[in-house]
Amino acid sequence: MKNTITRVDALNFAIDTISRIEVYGEEVARMDDMVNILTKIRDQIAKPRKTSDEAKAKRKEKNAEERASLMEQVMPIIRDGIGDGGTAKEIFERCKESLPEDFSDKKVQYILLHEMADEVEKIEAKGKPNVYKLKEA
Questions:
Q1: How far apart are the C-alpha atoms of 122 and 128, rounded to whole Å?
Q2: C-alpha distances out from residue 63 to 15, 69, 70, Å
Q3: How many other C-beta atoms are found inside a 10 Å radius of the C-beta of residue 132?
Q4: What is the gyration radius of the CA atoms in the chain, in angstroms?
Q5: Exposed end of the chain (fewer CB within 10 Å): N or C?
Q6: What pLDDT digit, counting tens, does each position of 89-105 carry?
Q7: CA 117, 120, 125, 128 torsion: positive or negative?
């Protein structure tokens, strides 16, 4: 059984309750009007919302622009932090003062592996953290 009642459930209960009330004369028409109005409200609320492809494309474009702007700011800092190489955690520690507050060693590692993959060499050692170095030009 649900712990919470939704707006649709509440409207269904109200419609059912009003429909069961016995009234006479002009009150019948008023009750029918109330039921019709509540039914329309319920149907509008229950209708799933569709996001248009255009809205999705705009949101995707906006996110890409924000990401590009962030990478433009962060990648030079990480490049400087790589120095002679090191693990993602070591690189993060070297440049965390210059990076945005919400950055972590995991975000730095993601950038090293994805955004900077063509300019960074990953050196794997079994049982040890990967070491990252800038590729020789």
A1: 13
A2: 43, 10, 10
A3: 23
A4: 30
A5: N
A6: 999 999 999 999 999 99
A7: negative
